[in-house]
Amino acid sequence: MERRRYMAFLVLSIMMLAFTWACGGGETTPEGGNASPAATPAASTTAPVASTPAAGGDTNAAKAAISKEDAQKLFLGRCKACHSEDGKGNKAIAPEVPDFTSAPWHDKKQDKELYDSIANGKGSGKGTMPKWNGLLKPEEMQGLVEYVRSLKK
Ligand code: HEC
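Above: inputs. Below: predicted complex with heme C.
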């Protein structure tokens, strides 16, 4: 008997709680409606600000590139002989080598072109740009494109 009463009380209070909650919910909706437009621009103004620097990093992530540090290691290990550490190129070894510090050179090149040249090689004769496809992973070659871009003066 006691138990049933207790159960009834419990059920009742749960129902009342649910009711209050539902009512409260109904009341807060218009308030929430007011609050959310205020919160939305606030959220959206911070979002581009926050995402802009992140987007720079995300571009790399989207194209899946290794970090700049890793790309630099690769460049110094595999590309320096012909392209030299500063990117100006070692003409004695590779006479056709472009100057990676030259802004006009960068301006006439597209990332895709650079990537394709790294992947498939370019030119002929002495010190030809080798083909790196198979030796380097796509994300490594993408990282090298970005590294080469970073040498622009
Ligand atoms: C044996 C010498 C040599 C090595 C090693 C070498 N390159 Fe090159 N690279 C060249 C030469 C020469 C050219 C110019 C090719 C041409 O335009 O005819 C060139 C051109 C390029 C270009 C410009 C391509 C274009 O479309 O104009 C990029 C980017 C490049 N190399 C990146 C790299 C990277 C990254 C590495 C290392 C993974 C590397 N190279 C290793 C000789 C070399």
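The pocket of heme C is lined by residues 75, 78-79, 81-83, 94, 96-98, 109, 113-114, 117-118, 122-123, 127-130, 132, 144, 148 (CB under 6 Å).
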